[in-house]
Request: fold
Amino acid sequence: MASIESLLSAAELPDSPTPRLDAELLLASALGKSRSYLHTWPEREVEAAQAERFAADLTRRRAGEPVAYILGQQGFWSLELEVAPHTLIPRPDTELLVETALALLPATPASVLDLGTGSGAIALALAAERPAWRVTGVDRVSEAVALAERNRQRLKLNNAAFCASHWFAALGARRYAMILSNPPYIAADDRHLREGDLRFEPSSALVAGADGLDDIREIVAQAPQHLEPGGWLLLEHGFQQAVAVRSLLSARGFVEVQSRRDLGAHERISLGRFHHE
Reply:
C-alpha cells in the first residue's frame, strides 16, 4: 500500500493550473477526509480501493474534467454546494455580486430575485446572510432548479425558493427590491470556450450571441417591470463589457449606474437603480 504523501507526489496533472490542490482535493474525497488530514498524516497508508478511486479521478482530471464535477461539489461564499454538469461551477469572482447586494440593501424584509440561478449559489448565499429576505431563484433548466432545491433543503434555508422560468417569463407581475444575475455573457466565437473547464460546462449557461450581450440586453429591457420603485439591478459580465453594460442600463432609464471590480481588478459587475415615473 502507498502512503498519502507518495500518492500525492506521484500525481501528475501537467495541464492543471493548480496540480497539487487538485490532487489533494481528489485524494481527500477518496479517503472521506479533509485536506488538513492529508497534511497531518502524510505517512498514513491508503487502502487499495481508495487508491483506485483516486487514480480513476486523476484520469478524469487529466482529461480536463473540472474537479468540482468529479467531486460533485464546490465551495461558494460560506456554503458547500452540490454541482453537476448541467450548471455552471460557482466561481469566486461571482461572490462580488453577493458582497455588493449585501451592502446595498438593509437586513430588513425584502424580496430578491436571482435570474439563471444554476446551483442556487447566489440565492442561497444571500438567504444565508439575510434571514429576513425572501430570495427567489429561477432557471430555465429544470435539472438546475432541482439541484438548487436540493442545496436549499440540505442547507435548511427556508427563506429561499426556486422555480422554473426563462428570465421573467413565469413570474407574472411580481416585483422585487433587487434583481441579480450572472447570465451567459461569452461571445459565440470566443476561443476560451474550447479551453480548460469551459469545455465541460453547459454552453447555454455561457454563450449569449455574437457579442455576448444578448441575455443582458433582454434582462435590462425587462427588469424595470419587475422592480419595486428604487429597486436595484446587478449584473455580472465579462471583464471587457462594463462600458457596454453601463450604456445599456443608462439607455433603459437606470440611474446611479456604476461598475465594481473583482479580485483581479477587472470591472466584473455593473448595477443601476430604477425609479418609476
